[in-house]
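ESCALATION

Customer reports they have been waiting on this structure for their group meeting. Please prioritize. Original submission:
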Amino acid sequence: MSVKKMKKEELELLSHKDITNLLLEEQGKRNTADLFHEIIKLLDLPSSTFDSKIGDYYTTLSTDKRFILLEDGTWDLKSRHTSDKNRMIEDDEEEELDDIKEEEEIEEEENDDFDASRQDDDDDYDDTEDDLKDLVVLDEDELELEQ
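Update from on-call: job pushed to the front of the queue and completed.
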């Protein structure tokens, strides 16, 4: 069924991502602004929604694996494009993940170094258990006998 033929109530049950998916299936690649304007029109939202929510909408498209941002600045369904393009994007994502992992490992090493230096400080701490080993506990009866 065409998105334009769907009732507003049906469209309101769908997420913006799902509506975008349907629009791209029917109409082909489109830019972010055109897609979001179409969604606002279909859902009968106020025009101020565009300015206040366009950034969130772009982020949503960027993080959804169904969509691909093409070199000309338009969005399309990832399934329509060759695996070479998809593989290039996945490689870029892997590089970013590798960079993040490296940063996390560096942070962990720095934290381990910090913990080790704190542990060395703990070794200098005088343990009171040694002081208490010669301590004798007396009952009240024994105390009275001594007096």
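Sent to customer with the following note: DSSP finds seven helices and three strands in the chain.
Escalation resolved.
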